[in-house]
């Protein structure tokens, strides 16, 4: 039975259709609102606005649920390879053995980057943030790989190129930033092993690929692979709606992710924990600061727009962090500070009242430190993990027959019309 919501204004009544998702979540379809009433809706930060219908990721912020294409993220983090999760997100189902092999071959075939790109990397100022470099380099890929004639081929090959080359480029930028020789991808290594080898192998110290490290990276990337209509994904969809090429759309996602309120939070958490350590380890003082309305400081790695309970990814990340540090016999003082900070915050009335819990970034930085990733590369690691989600969401949007260019409206609050005043009369 069709459901409607009734809107009454100035004695006029209009019926707005109610849309129900497959998990029972409801939305009021206001697409006819302006045509029927002349009104628009106002929703700063889009907290109550559904921008699309999507079959990729389901999350329930109250219950702490996250599923990719219906599969709980806990199961994927435990059993799946990153490559398989990538396939699942983009194609909508798990691959069979043949499909996975074919996908691996395609990723391998596209893993090298044009050597001229090296010149770009080398000419960025020393100390430039890797996210700024990555965002512009991904955009630059279009110049190196012009559009292909067949639309289908262009989409499939561009997706594969991005998944494979951005990983190579991230490792390459790290090597160049250290003044070291670039390490090329190897066909005998898995997706995660290859990345670690390109990052850390050196002619004077061959990199030992350890099972625990590879497993931690696999888990880290799976937990970051998609998160429905977050800020960077919405940026990819919005920029993509103007029908730009996929490189440009992904580049905008990377730029959005850079922000400290989004993907940049993993770096900000480590900086916060380090500052607490330097200050003598006083967690209570940091929590007090986060509660002070006159101080813009926030407890980094805490709070989420959708999760009003413990972020399910943070739960897995915390366990992964404990296991990794134990198996590698690493004693990271920042982990003890993080645990204490979490304990104090979760008992604090302000955090209880505001439903503030650790998010995925709270423990992820400690995992990355244990793997050996430098702090300024943390958000790049997030971007590599989120790449399949951005691609899947972009693909869904371009395949959507109802898709329109994204173009929100506004309520104008500026000056009323007045005449131009010549400069001598001002
Ligand atoms: N520390 C202290 N107070 C907080 C925090 C925090 N981390 N997060 C939210 N609050 C408070 C706000 O001050 C506000 O309080 P008030 O209502 O009394 O004024 C209230 O909680 C709601 O905050 P909003 O900013 O309106 O919540 P929103 O949903 O817009 O923001 C966000 C979510 C940006 C993640 C926020 O919680 C935050 O800034 N967290 C810290 C940064 C962070 O960890 N970001 C990573 C998010 S996960 C991701 O992107 C991968």
Keywords:
single chain, 426 residues, mainly alpha, Rubrerythrin, domain 2, Citrate Synthase, domain 1, Cytochrome p450-Terp, domain 2, 3 domains, 3-stranded antiparallel beta sheet, 18 helices, binds acetyl coenzyme *A
Model description:
By secondary structure, the protein is mainly α. The protein folds into three domains: 4-65, Rubrerythrin, domain 2; 71-258, Orthogonal Bundle (Citrate Synthase, domain 1), CATH 1.10.580; 265-371, Cytochrome P450-Terp, domain 2 (Cytochrome p450-Terp, domain 2). The chain has helices at 33-37, 73-79, 82-91, 97-109, 117-123, 130-144, 151-177, 191-200, 211-224, 231-241, 246-257, 265-278, 283-291, 312-327, 333-347, 349-353, 361-371, 378-399, and strands spanning 4-9, 12-20, 26-28, 57-60, 65-68, 71-72. The protein has a three-stranded antiparallel β-sheet. A three-stranded antiparallel β-sheet has the order 4-5-6. A hairpin with a 4-residue loop joins strand 4 (57-60) and strand 5. Helix 10 packs across helix 18 (378-399). The mean pLDDT is 95.
Supply the number of helical segments: 18
What compounds are bound to the protein?
A: acetyl coenzyme *A
How large is the radius of gyration? 23 Å
From the spread of the alpha carbons, the general shape counts as globular
- What strand line-up does the widest sheet have? 1-2-3
What number of structural domains do the residues give? 3
Instruction: Label the structural class.
Output: mainly alpha
């Amino acid at each position: 039975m069709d459901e409607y919501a009734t809107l009454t204004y100035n004695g006029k009544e209009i019926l707005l259709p109610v849309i129900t998702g497959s998990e029972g979540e409801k939305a009021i379809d206001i697409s006819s609102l302006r045509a029927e009433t002349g009104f628009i809706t106002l929703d700063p930060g889009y907290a109550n606005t559904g921008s699309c219908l999507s079959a990729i990721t389901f999350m329930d912020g109250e219950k702490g649920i996250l599923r990719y294409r219906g599969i709980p993220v806990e199961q994927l983090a435990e059993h799946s390879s990153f490559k398989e999760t990538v396939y699942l997100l983009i194609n909508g189902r798990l691959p069979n053995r043949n499909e996975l092999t074919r996908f691996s071959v395609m990723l391998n075939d596209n893993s090298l980057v044009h050597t001229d790109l090296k010149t770009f990397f080398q000419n960025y100022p020393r100390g430039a943030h890797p996210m700024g470099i990555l965002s512009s380099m991904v955009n630059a890929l279009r110049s190196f790989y012009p559009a292909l004639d067949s639309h289908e081929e262009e989409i499939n090959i561009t997706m594969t190129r991005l998944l494979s080359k951005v990983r190579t480029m991230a490792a390459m930028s790290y090597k160049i930033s250290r003044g070291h020789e670039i390490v090329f991808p190897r066909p005998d290594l898995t997706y995660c092993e290859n990345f670690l080898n390109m990052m850390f192998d050196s002619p004077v110290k061959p990199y030992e690929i350890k099972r625990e490290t590879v497993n931690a990276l696999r888990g880290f990337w799976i937990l970051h692979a998609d998160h429905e209509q977050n800020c960077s994904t919405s940026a990819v969809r919005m920029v993509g709606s103007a029908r730009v090429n996929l490189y440009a759309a992904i580049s905008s996602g990377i730029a959005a992710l850079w922000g400290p309120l989004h993907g940049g939070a993993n770096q900000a958490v480590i900086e916060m924990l380090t500052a607490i350590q330097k200050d003598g380890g006083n967690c209570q003082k940091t929590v007090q600061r986060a509660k002070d309305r006159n101080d813009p400081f926030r407890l980094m790695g805490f709070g989420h727009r959708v999760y009003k309970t413990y972020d399910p990814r943070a739960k897995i990340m915390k366990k992964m962090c404990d296991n990794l540090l134990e198996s590698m016999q690493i004693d990271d003082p920042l982990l003890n500070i993080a645990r204490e900070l979490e304990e104090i915050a979760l008992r604090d009335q302000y955090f209880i009242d505001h439903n503030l819990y650790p998010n995925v970034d709270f423990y992820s930085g400690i995992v990355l430190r244990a793997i050996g990733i430098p702090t300024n590369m943390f958000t790049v690691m997030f971007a590599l993990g989120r790449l399949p989600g951005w691609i899947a969401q972009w693909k869904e949007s371009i395949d959507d027959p109802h898709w329109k260019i994204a173009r929100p409206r506004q309520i104008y609050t500026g000056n009323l019309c007045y005449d131009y005043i010549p400069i001598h009369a001002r």
